[in-house]
Amino acid sequence: MGGGGEQTDRITGTNGRFSTYTWEEVQKHTKFGDQWIVIERKVYNVSQWVKRHPGGLRILGHYAGEDATEAFTAFHPDLPLVRKYMKPLLIGELEASEPSLDRQKNAALVEDFRALRERLEAEGCFKTQPLFFILHLSHILFLEAIALMMVWYWGTGWINTAIVAVLLGTAQSQAGWLQHDFGHLSVFKTSRWNHLVHKFVIGQVKGASAGWWNHRHFQHHAKPNVFKKDPDVNMLNAFVVGKVQPVEYGVKKIKHLPYNHQHKYFFFIGPPLLIPVYFQFQIFHNMITHGLWVDLAWCISYYVRYFLCYTPFYGVFWSVLLFNFVRFLESHWFVWVTQMSHIPMKIDYEEHQDWLSMQLVATCNIEQSSFNDWFSGHLNFQIEHHLFPTMPRHNYWRAAPHVRELCAKYGIKYQEKTLHGAFADVVRSLEKSGELWLDAYLNK
């Protein structure tokens, strides 16, 4: 299962014990087709397993040659089960003289964060309240039912249709937060049930693909705001972000668009087009090219349901227009909520930080309120979500004070903003990056 790599003949010695390796040896195995990772001091050859990894093809490669213990713990709710499946990949362990952490990471900070996780587990922060998710799904279905009833009783006039579009857009946005919960395995105790319901919610309720989402989103969590590893900062040359990329583009005289005006054209090609154009194309392209036929079947079932409900009233042409307008509304909601916690933060190349430090420089929180919790799907607690992605979101508020305390102990900045301030910071950060690009383009 885990074959591949140039030193697999060293798995065991004559005494039957596993081979031992130095960090220098481990760090030689970072290329596709030859990738090793370290978890809890054990060395695993994941060269072939990357192709079958449920979290997607690239996520293990992002940790090749590194200690992946913290990421491993964060992503897997049932660690004993996963360790059992990892046994065929085990090729050895670190030499006794080698530190457990690579690249001079702060061992005391890592140990304190591990202790914090254990404390939160003991306090029940990783236990789900089923009623919360039942009510959340119910309110999504209620919004969809109300929208259809409004068309049924009051017809297809412009005002009624506008209200229907808002209701459907709200339902789609809230379904997006719900599929996110199941995708992170934070609802059911077993991964199997989380995966099954995830396919249903993202496929039948939203018309998207679980496989596509896993591939993108887990990379983002594994290495947030890291160029070439986080797909969310791959702006397809439409934007330059952070402080490093704008200068690089400017020095190289790259000008696909007038980036010094990106904070203005963001309003026209960012929130309006991401879901109805880019994601829409990418989802179907990914399902077909990667043979995700189960996802495709669920996705098609959504479109069948939608057009069966609305074509009798609007006809095909106007039903298509209504569908795209709903996606247009949802796209604005999605972009502002997801980017308010990341775009204004540090965006750079790989720095091999520990889990806590890496997540805190790339994320910030938005102040808590009943509206903010609902509006953002509790992603106003972006810091806690990134640190503990399998934690049910209704418990983030319980973890937040403990995380703040740990950050204060090590001098790590814990940022919290108002909703309005966070939205404004997205635009301000794009403007600042554009100015850096223009200065480098003209003067360097």
What would you say about this model in short?
The protein has 444 residues and is mostly helical. It has helices spanning 23-26, 69-75, 79-86, 107-122, 130-154, 158-183, 191-205, 210-222, 244-251, 262-269, 274-289, 293-339, 355-362, 370-375, 382-387, 396-410, 419-443; strands at residues 19-21, 30-31, 34-39, 42-45, 90-94, 365-366, 416-417.
Secondary-structure blueprint:
Layout (H helix, E strand, L loop, with lengths): L18 E3 L1 H4 L3 E2 L2 E6 L2 E4 L23 H7 L3 H8 L3 E5 L12 H16 L7 H25 L3 H26 L7 H15 L4 H13 L21 H8 L10 H8 L4 H16 L3 H47 L15 H8 L2 E2 L3 H6 L6 H6 L8 H15 L5 E2 L1 H25 L1
Parallel strand pairs: 1-5, 6-7
Antiparallel strand pairs: 2-3, 3-4, 4-5
Helix pairs in contact: 4-16, 5-6, 6-7, 6-12, 7-12, 9-17, 10-17, 11-12
InterPro entries: Cyt_B5-like_heme/steroid-bd (IPR001199), Cyt_B5-like_heme/steroid_sf (IPR036400), FA_desaturase_dom (IPR005804), Fatty_acid_desaturase (IPR012171)
Organism: Phoxinus phoxinus (Eurasian minnow)
Pathway: Lipid metabolism; polyunsaturated fatty acid biosynthesis
Fold and architecture overview:
The protein has 444 residues and is mainly alpha-helical. It has two domains: 8-104, Flavocytochrome B2, Chain A, domain 1 (Roll); 105-444, no CATH class. It has 17 helices and seven strands. The protein has helices at 23-26, 69-75, 79-86, 107-122, 130-154, 158-183, 191-205, 210-222, 244-251, 262-269, 274-289, 293-339, 355-362, 370-375, 382-387, 396-410, 419-443, and strands at 19-21, 30-31, 34-39, 42-45, 90-94, 365-366, 416-417. Strands 1-5-4-3-2 form a five-stranded mixed beta sheet. Strands 6-7 form a two-stranded parallel sheet. Strand 3 (34-39) and strand 4 form a beta hairpin. Helix 4 (107-122) packs antiparallel against helix 16 (396-410), helix 6 packs across helix 12 and helix 11 (274-289) runs antiparallel to helix 12. The protein is globular, with a radius of gyration of 23 Å. The termini are far apart. This is Cytochrome b5 heme-binding domain-containing protein. GO terms for molecular function: oxidoreductase activity, acting on paired donors, with oxidation of a pair of donors resulting in the reduction of molecular oxygen to two molecules of water.
